[in-house]
Specification:
Aminoglycoside 3'-phosphotransferase, Chain: A, domain 2, Phosphorylase Kinase, domain 1, two-stranded antiparallel ribbon, Pseudomonas-type_ThrB, amino-acid biosynthesis, ATP binding, nucleotide-binding, about 325 residues, alpha+beta, globular
Length: about 325
């Protein structure tokens, strides 16, 4: 969520003329976090919203994201609700880009999640996965194993010998151990703690659905664990991990095969984000307000996951009973 495209007051007024239900603009502030889209806090005389201009997302994928958010919001989940224009469309052009408005949810980001926060995100993620299995549309994961291979090949000249060896070894491991015949459905695919909002210990918002896709559900859970449940050195905090898994399991019980492949999922999730951060670090984009995240953070997480025993799941959910 960086600012790559500036919006003038005149452009904004012309755009909002097609959204009469939300009134006239009072303020527009750029949001610097994230790396994919241009995002603004939009305040009108009738409320607060998020305005997104899509920079790299294929336009044909946008209806999937917005329809998914509307579907989940209608199911009672704490996700932003897309705002239709006067003709009933969620998408319009603004400053040369396709743009959308969604409701701004209450709460704030928790930068140092505790056990209660991890329990809550596990509960909501389990509910979201159950609901998402009823969503009628699907979308392949554009950052799945095929993307891992292609991105690794493109990065070869940018990496140190140690980075290259680690990357090739993990790609080989994932090729031989990752399975696609696990429970699947719609996943968020980017539910880091800065994509969630809390009021106290209550999760009031899950935001930024623009990586959402159809994939292995346990992979989504592993993405969450790798961000919400870690020590500064990248190792997993057992208390937060137990809380996450126990509450997720209460909403959507995992199969014995998912439990057995939990270390593979954790390693794959770490690899995916190490690769994306390596790419953004070595091939940055210009932006008015941008943030590039340190790839070494996920290298450390990947190395820590490679040290996990094969029975890493055993005891985690039940230990919190």
């Amino acid at each position: 969520m960086s600012v790559y495209t500036s919006v003038t007051p005149e452009q904004l007024d012309e755009f909002l003329a097609h959204f009469r239900q939300i009134g006239e603009a009072r303020d527009l502030q750029g949001i610097s976090q994230g790396v994919e889209n241009t995002n603004y806090f939009l305040t009108t005389d009738r409320g607060e919203y998020i305005l997104t201009l899509f920079e790299r997302v294929p336009e044909q994928d946008l209806p999937f994201f917005l329809n998914l958010m509307a579907f989940l919001a209608n199911d009672g989940l704490p996700v932003p609700r897309p705002v239709p224009d006067d003709e009933g469309s969620f998408l319009r052009r603004l400053a040369g880009k396709t743009a959308a408005i969604v409701t701004k949810l209450p709460g704030r980001t928790i930068y140092y999640p505790g056990v209660e926060h991890c329990a809550e995100v596990g509960r909501v993620l389990g509910r979201m996965h159950r609901a998402g299995q009823r969503f009628p549309d699907s979308r392949d994961n554009p950052r799945g194993p095929g993307w891992w291979q292609d991105t690794a090949a493109a990065l070869e000249g940018d990496l140190s010998p140690d980075e290259w060896r680690l990357l090739q070894d993990e790609l080989t491991y994932q090729y031989h151990n990752r399975r696609v015949d696990l429970p699947r459905g719609v996943i968020h695919a980017d539910l880091f703690h800065d994509n969630a909002l809390f009021e106290g210990n209550e999760l009031t918002g899950v935001i930024d659905f623009y990586y959402a896709c159809s994939d292995v559900l346990a992979f989504d859970l592993a993405i969450v664990a790798n961000d919400w449940c870690i020590h500064p050195d990248g190792t997993l905090n057992p208390y937060r991990t137990r809380a996450l898994l126990k509450n997720y399991n209460a909403e959507r019980p995992l199969t014995s095969v998912e439990e057995a492949l939990w270390p593979v999922m954790l390693r794959g999730a770490a690899l995916r984000f190490w690769l994306s951060r390596l790419w953004d670090y070595h091939h940055p984009r210009d932006g008015e307000l941008t943030s590039t995240k340190d790839p070494d953070t996920f290298r450390a997480i990947l190395e820590a996951r490679r040290d996990l025993p094969q029975n890493a799941w055993v005891g985690w959910p039940k230990a919190a009973e």
